Amino acid sequence: MIAWTSELKLALARAEAFAARHPRALTGTVVTALSGFAVTAFGIAPLAPDAVDLPQRTIAEAPQTLDLQAQLAELAAHDIGLIRSDLTRSSDTADSLLKRLGAFDPAFAQFLRSDTTAKRVLQGRAGKMVQLTANAEGVVESMVVRFPAEKAEQQSTHFSRLTLSRQGSGFSAKLETAPLQAQVRLGSGTIRTSLFAATDDARIPDSIASQMADMFSGDIDFHRELRKGDRFSIVYESLSADGEPISWDGAAGRLIAGEFVNNGRSYSAVWFKDTASGKGSFYGFDGQSKRRAFLASPMEFSRVTSGFAMRFHPILQTWRQHLGIDYGAPTGTAVRSVGDGVVESAGWQNGFGNVVHLRHAGDRTTVYAHLSRIDVKKGQRVEQGQKIGAVGATGWATGPHLHFEFRVRGQHQDPRAIAKASEAVPLPNYARGQFSQTVASVKAQLSAAEAMGSGVSGND
Question: Which residues form the M23ase beta-sheet core domain (predicted)?
Answer without folding.
Answer: 321-415
